[in-house]
Amino acid sequence: MNSTASAPHSTAPSYSALAGENALLREQLQVMQRQLDWFKKQLFGPKSEKQVYDLPEQDSLFQSGEAPEQPAGEAPEQPAGEEKRIIKAYQRGTGGKQRSDDCLNDTGLRFSADVPVEVIEHLPPELTGPEADQYEVIGSKTTYRLAQRASSYVVLKLERPVFRRKGTARPETTPAPFNVLDNSLADVSLLAGLLVDKFQFHLPLYRQHQRMQQAGVTVSRSTLTNLVKRAIDLLRPIVDAQTRNVLRSRVLAMDETPIKAGHQRRAGPQKGRMKSGWFWPLYGDADEVVFTYSNSRGRGHIEAVLSESFSGTLISDGYAAYARYAAAQENITHAQCWVHSRRYFIEAQKDHPETVTEALQRIAVLYQNEEAIKAQGLTSESKHHYRLKHSKPVVSDFFQWCRDQLSQGGLVPSDPLTKALNYVLSREASLTVFLENPDVQPDTNHLERALRPIPMGKKNWMFCWTELGAEHLGLIQSLISTCKLHDVNPYTYLVDVLQRVSRHPARDVADLTPRIWKTRFAENPLRALIDPRHPARQDNPLETPVHAH
Questions:
Q1: The domain containing residue 388 runs over which residues?
Q2: Of residues 129 and 499, more confidently modeled
Q3: Structural domain tally of the chain?
């Protein structure tokens, strides 16, 4: 009987231990589930962070199956005052197809003035046969077709006369047209094409080499690599000038993105593995971006790049190295990104859907205000006053709401919502900088968009063979990305500056940066010899005519 009475008492500690172990396992399971969800999203799921919310005014809409039926054969009524929606090239209606003014022809082909147009005169048998004199042409009808040549590579055969003045014995040879690289087989059009295909359209050199072989051109891959290297070296002074201008910005955005570059060159199982490097893009207030390279993600690179030249507001994500550097500088104000802060709440949305949705909706009001600023074209003081009136109360209420959520209790430190709330509250000062400075953006989205070619390129060419190659990648990507920011055609720009840089005064090299080049040289750029608009081609009466639109 004693043994029976003591049984429940002896098993009580085991229940408590099991309960504690169960709670620990549940917490570990939640952490692992969040990690699994993150990996699934990276591999399979959409990476968009846009949120779709139900609008309150839509509560009275018909539910599924409750919508009134439309009588058969009747078209739905057009709301009063609503215009018909134009669908691309034409609009369906009782009058048939109505062409839009921006359509070129029945095919809807549109092209700019830079696209060459070759005129082909197509004659019927009646106008070319023995009775052609019995017909007269009373008009002409024009149609267009978009065509593609089998190969985009052309060999330029330069015929240079050797001549002498009559009565003298000394012959003279016509000098060869200027070439960017001395004693090189490559025309400037090939150099620009190699750079644009690889760094703008992410076509690796080995694929370009395969394309050349298929076109019947025999050139080694090492030759293509050397041509790219030599061409980028010519552009280095231009990037240096652009970097100096970016560092003179009053507002500067900075970020980092990884890259594999160079061999580790070690024996053993890790032989042949690539080393990790980092690009540190800088985005200036004149819409210029430069990609600096370092083999480290440490604070030392930030100091090396910014310490001597930059003073103003530095916008970054939540990486602590930026905050520590800015805190040690008297002439730098640190602003942080609302989008990166928002991502912490998105990670907690599965566990706390209602609370996180409210947080995201509060942040969304800030971006609605920014859209209103853009729509109204507000700048400087008017932009500042609008933010103080509309956004500052939203920000203040948001941080107070975050404090209230923490004070309610019930959140453990490892909970994603706890981390999100603590993240934004610890960065309250840097997240409110944009309210006082109208030139500061509330996020680093503009920089994130500019650095996209780096991760996109890695999916194609995977890595840089050497660290010097990574540095060259940063140089050329600085120019191509800035060209796109200023609506400059990278190919046209590179063809011009590769020919101009060796003859341009070194003190004025900043004129060749894309932003300034657009205002000085874009209207009349230097052309490649293959271009029918090149002066030498236009002055040659034997040249096959190519009509430009």
A1: 338-443
A2: 499
A3: 2
